[in-house]
Amino acid sequence: MKNYKFQNATKILFGRGMEQCVGEEILPYGKKVLFHHYGDDFIRNSEIYKRVVHSLKESGLEIFELTGVQPNPVLSKVKEGIELCKREKIDFILALGGGSVIDSSKAIGLGAVYDGDVWDHYTKKHIIQESLPVGVVLTIAATGSESSAGSVITNEDGHIKLLGSNGHSRPVFAIMNPEVTFTVPRYPMAVGGVDMMSHVMERYFTNEPNVELTDRLCEATLRTIINNLPRTLENPADYNARSEIVCAGNLAHNGVLDCGRTPDWACHFISHILGGFTNLAHGATLSILTPHWMEYVYHANVEKFAQFAVRVWDIEYDEKAPEKTALGGIEALRTFWKGLGVPLTLTEAGVNCDQLEKIAELVVEDGPVGNVRKLYKEDVLNILKACV
Amino acid sequence: MKNYKFQNATKILFGRGMEQCVGEEILPYGKKVLFHHYGDDFIRNSEIYKRVVHSLKESGLEIFELTGVQPNPVLSKVKEGIELCKREKIDFILALGGGSVIDSSKAIGLGAVYDGDVWDHYTKKHIIQESLPVGVVLTIAATGSESSAGSVITNEDGHIKLLGSNGHSRPVFAIMNPEVTFTVPRYPMAVGGVDMMSHVMERYFTNEPNVELTDRLCEATLRTIINNLPRTLENPADYNARSEIVCAGNLAHNGVLDCGRTPDWACHFISHILGGFTNLAHGATLSILTPHWMEYVYHANVEKFAQFAVRVWDIEYDEKAPEKTALGGIEALRTFWKGLGVPLTLTEAGVNCDQLEKIAELVVEDGPVGNVRKLYKEDVLNILKACV
Predict the structure, then answer these.
(1) 20 to 30 Å CA-CA from B316: which of A195, B14, B124, B244?
(2) ipTM above 0.90, yes or no
């Protein structure tokens, strides 16, 4: 186990009706609230929108709405928000939505207290060491951004999608009412589940030895998702299954599962670049990439992949052929994802495969990626080609 | 799953050498530090003591030592600390030790900002809503107090041992270096492990349905303790095993495993009263009580106890006789604890059993205890008699 520092102060408010607390939770931070959301008719006519606005007004808060967040949140909208925050001296940013709205809010929070260009934070030119406080009312469980330190922003100028990570970006609270997610359609729910599982697996697959507790916590989280995700697709109003998914999605990315480990993140790295080129949902890029990545790297740590097969998928350990066990786990994952209806190849997802070389080049621009096995340009290209 | 609110902002600094950060971590809170510890020769001659003092001095902090904490920390020492804090205008309390020192520090922290008698907080006469900041350098992993909200203090005037729980009492940081625990002798290590397991099981055994994720997290934590605790007893300098135990002990009581559940806590309730009468180590009262409590209550939730047997102890599920499976799990726990050398009966622990009725009376003074099965005076007495 590696040395580590861990802190996550996000206050979680979980369950039915918890959105009624939103005004009260914001009050200690000030009066002027930037209310950030998608802004389409669906959200404006939703019960959750009405209840949040009601709670904000009841607490006497002044609301400044900023709408029009896109699925891959863009820098131009972030800049619009920063300008609004500075002009109106906003005290607090409230995100109503999923990962895109939350990430956009985090970026606005950083930019609002910084004199330079917020993009500097994402290019690592200047790490911003403070933020306006951000709160979240979650409408879809997937990215775990509601209590994570990171945010992913796309700079339209060049399709560059970059991650900025910073403890100051952790939301001060996250309100998670599973009922609110009942209306999330099947496909976003499925790719959201893939993203969660990927968050766990990026941490699980490591060459760091002696990480038994977090190994087992990862396995517990994966099994819970595997057990409950299909139930949410079958019956969208299954409160119990939704509850498990909402909580698992949060745990998958709140930092607990990282402790003492060296995560991999190769699939996420490739996914971000691939997503910038294709506009595929983040989870769809991951469902395509992950099993192919696994097949490419598992030789580097057969025992870990065999453990995954045994403990997550109940596959019997074959002492004479641990490789066979390992491959069985990868196959089980693929079969499970196939059942969810998410794409497993680029062709299936309708992606033009002309630019794979360019993508591979961008992935390793700052050096090789991954930990289980270090991936250079050629490796990334091999994986992408296998994904065709 | 029940609605819940969860927040734990304690910063964890885990690993070799992390105590070097202690001065730096305290600096933002002020200059005057109450340094609270056992104060015996063992601690004063220890490497960790020297390194902590060095770090405090290097950061230019002013140290006020308060020593002489007892295994069941007492109110008189707490009051001494409060007086010192008020007189010297202390900014920060640093606990170097295990649960006793940490709990004593938490109580001092509460009392230092309160004009009345700090005991009011423990009797629930007045809940103190703030605290001086407390930081921890952990020397024994057991109680999980290093990031929990609670503290247990004994009022010598009547042997009353009470729990006060309050988010404001969570330490602002906890430094956990497994090497520091190498010198913990076998018995405290074993009963500490029992306490950890009990913290998990008090949460695990609940009648709250639909708590799959936290069920699995509890099982993951228990399996990790079961796998590593004997290794720490066999080889005290096994850094990897100690690391797992230190992290599991923290997770067992940091609040994550509570989320959405109704915990039981009957064994802890009885343990606190029993401890006040016998001065047995907290973990020893739990190793005696828990299996007998289980045998007394398992009928109320056979499926949960059977799940415990299957998932924690790898016992095969007997569909025709789930009760048999459940009892198998209880027996496996008892066998495991026997192997650690902790007492399983009051007689074995040399306890005079004259006062069991009085103990049972005190346990239910404020009403029945427990959740899996509500225990009234007669039930508590039955369990205590079974423990003889």
Answers:
(1) B244
(2) yes
